[in-house]
Design a protein that fits this description.
single chain, 315 residues, alpha+beta, six-stranded mixed beta sheet, four-stranded mixed beta sheet, 9 helices
């Protein structure tokens, strides 16, 4: 059995093929997504996934998140009286996904295909392989995330040659890739991205706006405590014009315009990456046969509006 793993900045998941159909495997709580987080409990017990995420909300210094951004770098994180590397942290998440797969499949799992950003070069790709080895997994293949998105949408089955743009704004990373598809082959024609930009940054910006609106002390403890409520508001603003946030007995109403204003600088950083990728592919927006939006942050209306503004077609 070979499992498929999406090792994300914010959340990760594991899937397999059963009876010819893809199936995302859930943990004991029925959750498909495993937070990409590692932390230590008060007694020193290692926590991974949901337990680590909840621990970090209460005690931000007890662990780390977003370590995917540092894969292939010498970055380290200090908690539990020692330094942790991005590889070690990723290995803990991969090991948890392996455990979930073995629980659901009721058999040992040792082989995996792992998706990585298209702009990952040799160092972060090797770091991903090293993390998998530490987790007890043999990587059969690293697959580019845009390619995985195209395969998931069945574009490789089209008879005609086509040019496809994958706009991937995840929790912590952003990349744009132009794929050329012909005779069942998916080829990366051009790719560009920013490894330090994603939905997490949009949440940070909205947290800052709420802190200012409520006149709160801007420190890490307050920001971490506010963050879950702000995340809920951000998701609601993707489908509603207004949303209410309640904090410590106080209420503040936020509109979609507030989100746009608070994150305007981040959104403007998306545009040149998109333009550069198409330029490198020697294509114009009119040459595209379709666009795939990947990553949870693309659910924000402001992303769709940006794409409409520059003239991108939609799938």
């Amino acid at each position: 059995m070979i499992i498929g793993i999406d090792l994300g900045t914010t959340n990760s998941l594991v899937a397999c093929m059963r009876d010819g159909r893809p199936e995302v495997l859930t943990n004991e709580l029925g959750e498909r997504m495993t937070p990409s987080a590692v932390a230590l409990a008060e007694d020193g017990l290692e926590l991974v996934g949901r337990a680590a995420h909840d621990r970090l909300v209460r005690e931000p210094s007890s662990g780390v998140r977003r370590f995917k951004r540092d894969m292939g770098t010498p970055a380290t994180y200090r908690f539990g009286r020692r330094n942790w590397s991005p590889i070690e942290c990723s290995a803990r998440v991969l090991r948890e996904l392996k455990r979930i797969a073995e629980l659901r499949l009721e058999q040992p799992v040792e082989r995996a295909v792992i998706s990585v950003p298209a702009y990952f070069h040799d160092p972060p790709r090797q770091a991903t392989l090293d993390a998998a080895e530490l987790a007890g997994l043999k990587v059969e293949r690293l697959i580019n995330e845009p390619t995985a998105a195209a395969l998931a949408h069945g574009f490789q089955e089209r008879d005609a040659e086509s040019e496809l743009l994958v706009f991937d704004l995840g929790g912590g990373t952003f990349d744009v890739t132009v794929l050329e598809l012909f005779e069942g082959v998916v080829d990366v024609r051009a790719s560009a991205g920013i490894s330090q930009l994603g939905g997490e940054d949009y949440s940070d910006a909205l947290v800052s706006a709420v802190v200012e609106r409520l006149g709160l002390k801007d420190d890490e403890a307050v920001r971490q405590a506010l963050r879950p409520a702000v995340e809920v508001v951000k998701r609601r603003l993707a489908i509603e014009e207004r949303a209410e946030l309640e904090w410590d007995g106080r209420r503040v109403e936020l509109g979609r315009d507030d989100l746009v204003k608070a994150t305007a600088e981040l959104t403007e950083r998306l545009r040149p990456v998109l333009v550069r990728c198409l330029r490198d592919a020697e294509l114009g927006f009119a040459d595209l046969d379709g666009v795939i939006l990947a990553g949870g942050a693309t659910r924000m209306t402001l992303v769709r509006e940006l794409l409409d503004e520059v003239g991108c077609p939609r799938c």
